[in-house]
Amino acid sequence: MPAATANPEARKVTRPRADALRNRERIVTAAREMFVEYGPEVPLDEIARRAGVGNATLYRNFPDRDALVREVVCSVMDRTAEAAEQALAETGDAFEALSRFVHAAADERISALCPMVSSTFDQHHPDLEAARHRVEHLVEEIMDRAKAAGQLRADVGVGDLMIAAAQLSRPPAGTGCVLHDRFVHRHLQLFLDGLRAPARSDLPGAAMTMEDLRQA
């Protein structure tokens, strides 16, 4: 029996699929950069230009601005979760995984992107909720493990971590991102060091949950 050969038609289908995936990734990367630099109203044709694709390619992947913003936010949350999961798998150290998550979130500019969720589109879209729940559950699990190991002070909640990390990684008013980059990780590390057990002080109030944060 002759050896099986690849179907030429199958090869023709596979190549465009890979090219389309690369184009989509370029669009999402360019959109993330430009949303951070210029805000959510940056013209879509400018995003297409930075991504090196035509307008038709952008609209074929993302029919409107909301779809593109949602994909950017979801991809950023996915990457921050992956950073924490990788740290946990590599080291088995829950506090190291927590630190990796916080620093990765700052690198991804998550504090600049997440406010766009409430102002531009449906917060309850299934893709967005799935990405958000993945991050929240992962961080909650890591924090519980760090507390059980005696690494993390017991009087902080997931909401405390999220709001403090967002505030510390958001550039102050009138401050450019380049200048901000010089001190954001330094300040985040000071914050993380303050989370370590044993606690050196008593925190006022109660630990903040994600539900508290959503209702604030």
From TrEMBL:
Keyword Transcription regulation on entry: yes
Annotation: DNA-binding region: 43-62
Entries under SUPFAM superfamilies matching the protein: Homeodomain-like, Tetracyclin repressor-like, C-terminal domain
Residue stretches making up the HTH tetR-type domain: 21-80
PROSITE patterns per record: HTH_TETR_2
Keyword Ligase: no
Keywords: DNA-binding, Transcription, Transcription regulation
UniProt-listed InterPro entries: Homeodomain-like_sf (IPR009057), HTH-type_TetR-like_transc_reg (IPR050109), HTH_TetR (IPR001647), Tet_transcr_reg_TetR-rel_C_sf (IPR036271), TetR_SbtR-like_C (IPR049445)
Source superkingdom: Bacteria
Gene3D superfamilies tied to this protein: Tetracycline Repressor, domain 2 (1.10.357.10)
Pfam family, one: TetR_C_43
Protein name (database record): TetR/AcrR family transcriptional regulator
Organism annotation: Streptomyces andamanensis
